[in-house]
């Protein structure tokens, strides 16, 4: 390939005072001197492995690393600069009149390997910076850029850097003046530890697995090339064949994090023994044999296969996926001791990383050794990886000692000259891969004796691999580049499709050569992989953006052609290549044309999005569809944006997607006319946008003045299209709408009755049609209606009916449980709410985390707190913490979960801790709640207000506006004041008088505050009794003490002390004791 990205070092040198020299000398003399200068440059630069790119007046430009990388090009550039300066200074003609200024810079450029083409050899920012460095150099001085200094400071000495303002750079850059080569190369190594101890530790852990039959989890972490894979191989070799065990490996790809669970495909095939066994029947048989019920076994098998896109349209949520995989591994490890390996985990998708993390939380008693191999970059994404896990061991591989590195070199190249060996030991820095690659590079160039000078040795893995690649034949190099775009694994048919310029025979011959060079290895027939993934990295980096785009397009087409009927199994990988082609084309400052087949790419991206949506991978869905949107013709944008909105739940992006779809629908209106399908689409989009606001957007709905207009227009469109489904859907919209708008003013009874009738009709309509999805939403609207408007006894059977709908997504089923539990709580049937929650837990698969049930748990926790059932609070709050606390140890967790789980439950737990004066728990909960505030910007004010009320009993000045604008804060603030024996001013409560959200409990609180304000303590006592009957048992006990303090009447305190003592409510017990003492 003519054009490539290359890591090079660029040298600029010019003659100072050349203009004055031209004035002082005859032009022929100047030409003679410059000719002599150029001749010296032509000798010095090539002698050091560089290429003279051009002469520019009195300046020269040389590149080191072109046309071939030599591995130590930065050092060669500095050695050449020193030699050029010395030759000129010592020349009898040039020395007296010439002084050079030389600048050297290292960086990535776009280069051509064909100087005869007449094009520039190298272009890029690194070239411009090298020229600027030379312009800021003093006469007879050599300065280098920071990247060159970092690559060579172990071999050369420099003065202290100085900063310079450089044209085109927003900030000053550092200039490092070169002094000369070091007498001895600088050695900087961390403490050295051998591999023997690491092997012994792994062997010991394996013995514990076999003896104790309990899992051991080992994270092997080290920089690239330190020997993680080699350590694993040596460990497995030591196990022998006497003991029965099974090894399965998942290899994560270096490119394509969007491909969520792709590495699990290879893992599953190894676990089962063959790809042919990757069927629902076979996997479910394993579960049944382990004692699981047939239905549970089939369900788990479906979940596992849906993860890999094998089980058709089956959908699974994340927790089901994690649970199913944990169960499968548990079943298999019980049958045979299992060693499970995840290689290159730092390249995994976030979804796969979450799954592996869930595996590390296994608590089953089975003989399992789980090994994860990763680079330290993993800690950038998961700073607390493995922290707090039982049976967890972290092995941080350290560099080899010099003695161990020498031993490794002797085994690989006994013929190597001792001096050369010493240089490699010095340069390898204890990294075995560095050492091995340096040896191979020298052997391939035929340099094994003393002529292999020190400055010919690579100083980084990148340079070492690039130097090896530049020794290959063009077709061999092209194979590596194509394979790098494909990922770590590649096949002969794929190469043949992507490299049409070479015959099949030429490609096959090149593969044989690469196998012999130990650069690639066979995995199966006509399939290969890089022997080390760093070759894949470097090969990919050599490609220009244009080449990457073209290869991603060609590989996507090749994979689709090969996949045939098994397209679902490959669709994520194909979509990834289309995504990369699209992304790279959009990165260019000048938009680069795409040659891909747009309809085919759209079909693949949409299919991948549907598949990702089935297993709850929202980020992947969004990425696929956004890529599709970026290339789609306008005629496709309506349906693409609608699909995007359908996939994102109730996120802000959902609203934006539906609005975009509507915008493009409006633009198409004139062309489409009165086409029924087009009108139906408009009605559907308006309805979906309305339901988004009504069902999922919370308080945001109050600012949407257009909602009634949208509703009216949707009605007209649905009628014009003759779409009965949409007309009944609009009745559902009306049900949600009147329920939500009751927050502003309570609707009239006849309005409520009319909406109920229409909702009932919608439920019957969709039930008769068998439309389970629509029936679920219709029932939800009717249940919400009954709960809001005081007919909760009607809500309970409907919530139970909703739970009988088959095939509900996990999130919708959890919502159905939440509405049933909420109905019981509003009804005052606390025991039924707890029983329902326990039933919901019974539906979970063994080991499944109850993430989707946290809203239901929160409802029960709050009810238990109010009723004085603090033992239940403790029980259910432990479940909340088991779900939520793992996220606190991971910087990458989803902030949306913080609202769902943390705020309400943790505030309740803090309130109990404060009343019990449990300082330790207060000190634990308060920082966590403050962290919620940092994550949830929109709710930070409300959370700060709630914390201020609990901790300080008052709001700070900057938050006092919430007393007038936020109902919850107003009510909570009033309760805090009342429990101190104070009342809030009536003006603060005036805005609440017509608020439709005020239920019986809130109304009793408002009336109690008014009675305290008016000092009507008899009325206050009646209201306290009313609140006690409504389930506010703890608050009522507190207020009995307050009223006794205000009136001196202790006769109403019967039963208060036993309650407070049972709750260990020290704050109010102390107030009670003070009353009794007085």
Automatic annotation (TrEMBL):
Instruction: Kindly state a single biological-process term from the GO annotations of this entry.
Output: cyclic nucleotide biosynthetic process
> Keyword Nucleotidyltransferase, does the record have it?
no
Domain Guanylate cyclase: where?
A: 9-134
Quote the PANTHER family the UniProt record gives.
GUANYLATE CYCLASE DOMAIN-CONTAINING PROTEIN, TESTICULAR SOLUBLE ADENYLYL CYCLASE
Check the record and name the CDD domains matching this protein: CHD
GO cellular component terms given for this protein: cytoplasm
Q: Which UniProt keywords apply?
A: ATP-binding, Nucleotide-binding
Cited InterPro entries: A/G_cyclase, AAA_16, Nucleotide_cyclase, P-loop_NTPase, TPR-like_helical_dom_sf
SUPFAM superfamilies according to UniProt: Nucleotide cyclase (SSF55073), P-loop containing nucleoside triphosphate hydrolases (SSF52540), TPR-like (SSF48452)
Q: Which domain of life is it from?
A: Bacteria
Give the stretches traversing the membrane. none
The name under which this protein is listed is: Guanylate cyclase domain-containing protein
List, in alphabetical order, the Gene Ontology terms for molecular function in this entry.
Answer: adenylate cyclase activity; ATP binding
